[in-house]
Amino acid sequence: MTDIRLNPDLDAAALAEAFAGRRRLHIPNILEAASAEAVAGVLEAETRWKTTVAAGGDFFELPLNGDRAEDPSKQAWLDDARLDGAATRMQYVFDTRRLGAEHETETPDAADAALEFLNGEAFLGFVRAVTGDARIDFVDGQASRYRPGHVLTTHSDLSMGKNRLYAYVLNLTREWRADWGGALVFHGPDGHVAEGWVPAFNALNLFEVPMSHAVTQVASFAGAPRLSITGWIRSHQPVGPQRP
Question: Which residue, 235, 195, 204, 222, is CA-closest to 22?
């Protein structure tokens, strides 16, 4: 399996100081360059994604071949998926690929290796240092691909019993323009966007749970898919009450 490595030049103490104020942080060049290239290459070549949908009252996950339904008779499910603009609950449409033991192949690849790396002491120790949180025990994750029209509406990541401490996005999109959408945005109490991060290659977005955020809809004219590995940094122990 590919050996994934943390960038040795990262300054955990400086990053901890930056994280402390807003409890969120964008960290460029999180991996060694060769590691980022290996994981990105796997996701760019992947064809067996699944589209996951929770939109307008529809809930399903559909295997793909490229960007079309593996079962042609179900392509209409994807074509007809529509978000309910009046709904306040979280809705989403995007592509996903399982990692690690859940990945449906016999030979682990660099994307599977990335999840193993995220659960290794080098990364867990780094995140404990940045957040100052000794409760961190493990990381879950999936690969995601956002294509034109894909979106993830406002939510906080709070899920009772999951013991989520922090959310993360390991960005693996080589080039992106802000007007293509797909930005991770955080909302302030006044309803405005308080901060937003455009996808950037080999960068880690890290933020405390719960925190109100969304992924803006990818534009119809976006020139590439938005690729990442994303999930939550969690504890084996109950984390206690969290603000909603």
Answer: 195
What is the chain's alpha carbon radius of gyration, rounded to the nearest angstrom? 18
Amino acid sitting at position 91: Q
Mean pLDDT of 155-181: 96
3-state per-residue secondary structure call for the chain: CCCCCECCCCCHHHHHHHHHHHCEEEEECCECHHHHHHHHHHHHHCCCCEEEEEECCEEEEEEEECCEECCHHHHHHHHCCCCCCCCCCCCEEEEEECCHHHCCCCCCCHHHHHHHHHCCHHHHHHHHHHHCCCCCCEECCEEEEECCCCEEEEECCCCCCCCEEEEEEEECCCCCCHHHCCCEEEECCCCCEEEEECCCCCEEEEEECCCCEEECCCCCCCCCCEEEEEEEEECCCCCCCCCC
Residue partners of 123: CB distance under 8 A and separation at least 6: 6, 117, 139
d(CA 184, CA 195): 9
Average pLDDT, the chain: 95
| Predicted pLDDT of residue 241 | 64
pLDDT of residue 2: 83
Task: Please say whether the beta carbons of 48 and 160 come within 8 A.
Answer: no
- Residue 14, class by beta-carbon neighbours within 10 Å (0-12 exposed, 13-18 middle, 19+ buried)? exposed
